[in-house]
Design goal:
The protein has about 400 residues and is of the alpha/beta class. The protein has helices at about 15, 80-95, 135-140, 140-150, 215-225, 240-245, 260-270, 285-290, 315-330, 350-360; strands spanning about 5, 20-25, 25-30, 45, 55-60, 65-70, 105-110, 120-125, 125-130, 160, 180, 185-190, 195-200, 230, 250-255, 280, 300, 335-340, 365-370, 390-395. β14 (about 230), α6 and β15 (about 250-255) form a beta-alpha-beta unit. It is globular and about 70 Å long.
Length: about 400
């Protein structure tokens, strides 16, 4: 028997609005024949207090107790996984990404945005990289791999699982990264809007590359001509490559990771040769911004998430304010600032207010030119607004 979860009276309201999370406080009781059946990652059925079926999903320990896979009483079998992957692939085909010779890397599955909460799948050339954020998705990884193979056919030669660092720590699944099917050179050159990047999904951060900034990197390229560019938290140099491609006079890439800076340098050489006007600095970006003078007239601030959850939100906002105030105070008159937050806990309004405070501290006249978000292959489920995690502003500074 599939374990059954019964909700407290009235706690089905969010599910009737098709929100894909069930919080532990909403649960009244659980029916299961054996305690082992309700282990983390188990498939469960969810019922209202009146006994009406309402959802089916993966059980997990923590504040989010169930991640909903379906609001229909349908089996979660091989055909179901194929349908969900096929729909996700069709969305990317619609976006012009699935068979685009100028862009060979994109996100195929974006968790709740593709009605597959807890799952990320990124495509790099002929390799699919799977990253599970829940025990339920990890336990289903072979079914997911089979569905990808069925939908993509010969377009995929390898499927790599990179879930060891993203699974819940308490789940104790003993996950080890490795190939679920096939094998590939883990250091491939992929294309993004015609720019070349060497991606290593085995050793790189996330799945190997930050695919969510593709559209925003294009915008940097538009503004870079003739400018002296500072790319902080540069990682593998995505913004740096686009800036130089757009005609920047000079680009400086800063990151605290020696390996990241080396990869940024490699990507610059890959696109522009050894004599590219590019300097790299291994340094803490926040410290580096203490005293940059007026050397730069285009600055990119793309830090890691300062706030992973709401408990540290106050400190995170102080960090964003300090970072932006330093850049705004020193950027040349007529300069352009690209500033981002990838913290899901930070709303668009809060981020904008914080940057406003930073501008006031810097005492500069500032105009908002663009308000940025994640690209369409990182879709937002209309019933799950929390999925809108990436916020950005492009500012003109007098």
């Amino acid at each position: 028997m599939t374990p059954q979860i019964y909700l407290r009276r009235g706690k089905e309201e969010s599910l009737l609005r098709r929100h894909p999370w069930i919080f532990s406080g909403a649960i009244d009781y659980i029916k299961a024949e054996e305690e082992s059946e309700i282990a983390e990652g188990a498939l469960v059925e969810v019922y209202t207090s009146k006994g009406d079926f309402i959802a089916r999903g993966h059980y997990q320990i923590g504040s989010i107790a169930v991640r909903v896979l379906s609001f229909d009483a349908e089996p979660i079998d091989a055909a179901w996984w194929e349908r969900r992957i096929a729909v996700a692939a069709d969305v990317r085909r619609t976006l012009g990404l699935a068979e685009n010779p100028a862009t060979t890397c994109y996100r195929l599955v974006h968790g709740e945005g593709d009605s597959l909460p807890g799952l990320v799948v990124d495509i790099y050339g002929t390799t699919a990289v799977v990253q599970c954020h829940s025990a339920g998705m990890y336990r289903s990884r072979m079914e997911i791999a089979r569905a990808i193979r069925t939908v993509y056919g010969e377009r995929i030669a390898a499927i790599y699982d990179k879930s060891s660092q993203t699974l819940p720590f308490k789940a104790d699944l003993g996950a080890v990264d490795g190939y679920l099917w096939g094998h590939a050179d883990p250091s491939q050159v992929v294309l993004e809007n015609g720019e070349q990047f060497r991606v290593n999904w085995e050793k790189g951060q996330k799945t190997g590359f930050f695919l969510d900034q593709r559209k925003n990197r294009e915008l940097v390229k538009r503004y870079a001509k003739g400018r002296t560019v500072l790319n902080t938290f540069c990682y593998t140099g995505g913004f740096s490559v686009y800036a130089l491609s757009g005609g920047a006079r000079e680009v400086c890439s800063v990151d605290s990771s020696e390996r990241a800076v080396a990869l940024a340098t490699e990507n610059m050489r890959l696109n522009f040769g050894p004599d590219a006007p590019h300097t790299e600095i291994v340094a803490d970006a926040v410290e580096y911004l203490r005293d940059i003078g007026d050397r730069y007239d285009l600055i990119i601030l793309d830090p890691p998430a300062f706030a992973k959850h709401h408990k540290v939100l106050g400190n995170a906002m102080q960090g964003y304010k300090r970072l932006n105030a330093r850049a705004l105070a020193q950027i040349r008159p007529g300069g352009i600032l690209f500033t981002f937050s990838c913290s899901q806990a930070v709303s668009k309004e809060l981020f904008r207010t914080t940057v406003f405070s930073a501008a006031a501290i810097a005492g500069r006249r500032v105009r908002i030119l663009h308000q940025l978000t994640q690209p369409a292959d990182h879709p937002i489920n209309i019933y799950h607004p929390e999925g809108e995690y990436l916020k950005g502003l492009v500012l003109y500074v007098e």
